[in-house]
Design a protein that fits this description.
Elements (H helix, E strand, L loop, with lengths): L1 H22 L5 E3 L2 E3 L1 H37 L6 H102 L6
Antiparallel strand pairs: 1-2
């Protein structure tokens, strides 16, 4: 186990040394006779990867363009003659429907006007009948009141005449009774 710890320690030491060697500001790496710092290598790597990525993207766009160009060249427009026929039939039916709707609208307006005229005539007739009925009822009421008044007057006159006759009859009977009482011979 102690050997394993020694191996691990040795590896850690070698990594620390590599980090000091390659990660410091003063580190210079020589490639093909050219000297680079780690920062310059990072910039170069970034530029190279961006350039390669741009080239790949351009290649993909060009490939899509070629495929699209082929599809456009092979394109055959669909036969729309049946669609055009159906569209013509629909337009013709639409025109007929519009004419039919216009005729119905005109007929409905005429019917409404006739109904309004008939309604106005009926309203006038009802109002005239109402006025005549009101006048007849007023005249009838007046005639009934006059007849009632005449009957009351006649009844009053008849009552007075009857009262007078009864009074005369009472007077006549009273005087006859008085005569009969006053007559000395009546008692015998």
């Amino acid at each position: 186990m102690s050997e394993e710890i020694k191996d691990v320690n040795a590896k850690i030491d070698s990594m620390e040394a590599a980090a000091k060697k390659y990660a410091s500001k003063d580190t210079v790496i020589s490639i093909g006779g050219y000297e680079f710092t780690p920062a310059k290598l990072m910039v170069a790597f970034t530029l190279a990867s961006s350039l390669l990525g741009g080239l790949y993207g351009a290649f993909e766009v060009y490939k899509d363009y070629q495929g699209m160009k082929k599809k456009i060249a092979e394109y055959i427009s669909p036969d729309l003659s049946e669609f055009d026929k159906r569209l013509a039939v629909i337009e013709e039916n639409s025109s007929k429907t519009t004419d039919y709707t216009r005729d119905i609208k005109t007929d409905l307006k005429a019917d409404i006007r006739r109904n309004e005229t008939v309604t106005e005539q009926i309203e006038r007739a009802v109002k005239q009948t109402q006025r005549e009925t009101d006048q007849d009822l007023k005249l009838l009421s007046k005639n009934v009141e006059q007849a009632i008044q005449r009957n009351r007057d006649e009844m009053d006159k008849l009552k007075r005449d009857t009262d007078n006759k009864i009074e005369k009859l009472n007077s006549s009977v009273d005087s006859k009774i008085q005569k009969a009482i006053d007559n000395p011979l009546a008692g015998k």
